[in-house]
Amino acid sequence: MIAAVLDLVAVLLLALGLKGLSRVRSARSANATAALAMALAVVGLLIEIRPAPIAWLWIAVGAAAGGLAGLVTARRVPMTAMPETVALFNGCGGMASLLVALGVAVFDSIEAGPVALVSILVSVFVGTITFTGSIVAMGKLQGWLGTPPWTQSRLRHAVNIALAVICLVAAFSLPAAPAGPPLALLVLAAGLLGIGVTLPIGGADMPVVISLLNSYSGVAAAAAGFVVGSQLLIVAGAMVGAAGLILTQVMCTAMNRSLTSVLFGGALGGAAAVGGGAGETGYTRITSCSPEECSMALEQAERVVFVPGYGLAVAQAQHALRELSKLLEAHGVEVAYAIHPVAGRMPGHMNVLLAEADVPYEQLVEMDAINPEFPRTDVVIVLGANDVVNPQAKNDPSSPLYGMPVLEVDQARQVFVVKRSLGAGYAGIANALFELPQTAMVFGDAKAVLNALAAELRSMGVGKAKAAV
Ligand code: NAP
Questions:
Q1: 3-class secondary structure for 315-328?
Q2: Which candidate, 391, 440, 384, places its Cα nearest to that of 411?
Q3: How far, in Å, is the centroid of ligand 1 from the Cα of 277?
């Protein structure tokens, strides 16, 4: 009875946690709520199964090892490596579901009923694909794995189809011997299929794949819930599966990619990613200026919008940005931050980054809300952002970015682009914004430039004047 109540409370808290995660303001507390839900679920399970004394030792060792690994990872991993970390966690989720299903199939004498068999089948198949696919995704994002040339040819489709057929044959042979060779064949073929599907996908598309794999890990967990008869696992897995699928759809829309082109077009995403950081060519009308000139424009402005991008995260310049904003606000300037849904390298990257520096949530304005505001903005400072402000996405049908919604900073009166060089962003293409008459480049590391701007403003007495009023 106590276990059932704890399960119910855990499910409700998990649903509340997921809902809270959709808003920046409530995300931190929602994360804690979801963690509490998981803790209650574990307690409920322990009460229900009443482990034998020897099992407690294993449970304690497993909980300590897992908890320590999670703690160390959370503390050590830099924000820029978050996609790799999420990929690894997805892989762990897939592997857990796989092991649970294998454990039941091999060590428990399962009834050969259709529900038990299908649950084991789905759990093993999806869990294995999630595991190997996620490990490949992590390896690619870390730069440990490249994209082998054969994966860009039709051969990969043939290989993947052959592996899928082997999985089907193994699945149909499973009822005859649930713990026999078909199960091993299924694990092997699904593992290779996970590698074969993920390996060709390029870095630019990888976060879409990671959210899809996240969804798969939920499906595998839900299937594992059927295997062990845990309603909690079924509900939690279904929620993760649905949330991952919705996120995948949102990211595809924001990047103007279809899921089919991500999964079966592989080479395109790869080409885009490989191009990132290169491509300084072709600019003929670049205007650059010093932090001093930029600070003079800021001093005169009534409304300033900062556009953070991946480079801000690389430079870890969020605190310097906050300091500059405080100076401007003390001077009576209206400040806002324009948030593009795919700025950075993971969903919500900029929100997390700016939250670290205690930027007030109400100053973070989503793309759809801030775009109409740019024409009344005096100064836009683009900080390490590139693709998300590229006007070619609106104007140039031949651009790979064409159709992707962007921040329309070109509508503002003055634009300063802070970056180290004229190098390209993730999409690997030139940016028409840099050559517009209202744009000036401020070359340098984002943190160094922001500190220089703040120093210039202080030397003009900017913070002091209004603070004294
Ligand atoms: P971006 O287009 O990748 O451009 C980042 C810019 O930051 C680069 O041009 C780079 O120029 C500059 N930079 C790097 N280090 C810097 C530093 N220390 N100081 C100053 N500037 C620095 O970034 P974005 O505008 O944020 O766009 C994100 C891109 O990633 C989009 O193409 C999006 O589709 C893709 N993407 C996003 C996600 C997601 O979930 N958010 C997922 C997958 C793909 P320099 O080298 O010249 O400094």
A1: HCCHHHHHHHHHHH
A2: 391
A3: 8
